[in-house]
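Annotators were shown the component list below and the corresponding predicted structure, then asked to write short factual statements about the assembly.
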Amino acid sequence: MNTVENKKTMRWIAGTIAFTVIILLIIFRPLPFLFYKDLPFVGFLGRAMYIILLSALLCLLRVFLGPTGADRIVAVDILGILIVGFCAVLTVSTGRSWYLDIGIAWALQSFISTLALSKYLEGKGFDE
Amino acid sequence: MNNPVSVMDVVGLVFIAVGLAFDFLGCLGLVRLPDVYNRLQAATKAVTVGTCSILLGTFFVVGFTQAGVKALLCIVFLILTAPVAAHAVARGAHRAGIKLWDKSVVDHYRDDREGEA
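Structure shown to annotators:
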């Protein structure tokens, strides 16, 4: 019992230190993004993009190790809403308004797929 | 847009920063909380409000252009649809028989279903 508590405490401390280091790196020393050189991945909006990508990484972690199917469905729903926010930040940083078209379409598709997956989880057919 | 010059730019960037904080804390709750229902109610509300705040900041930065009107439309759509999706997932999970956390104290929906059955 005592060893289990110790292990949980050590995991908590390690995770807190790792996330503090990652957030401080994002705030004070953001990496340049290698593949898309026209996107401004420095400055405030670049840090915003990195924080949204970190949140998406947390959602993917829940998708991978969720114990039930409902966890995975919730995580995919949250991931869709995060992508809408990412499209908004891309619109501000580049000035191209068609990124928000992608955001609206992604929100619609995420909503419909979440409804269908919850119906599937409930164990009913799709036609009622 | 790295150097904000007008008042509306500063207001929009403040809204974007608040929305980022809500998004990150919501996803942290999605990882840390012990139960499907806890994760759902932490993540859905926080991330919906955070993304709506980011879109409102986008509207304040770009003004009444094409992108601003699209941002307002996206806010309305998210506020209308995200609670519906969360409610559907929670209802489906409860009807599929997924247990609550063992330290949960109340389950009204189970009592209602026992009453109707």
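Statements collected:
1. The two ends of chain A are 49 Å apart (CA to CA).
2. Residues 2-28 of chain A form the longest helix (27 residues).
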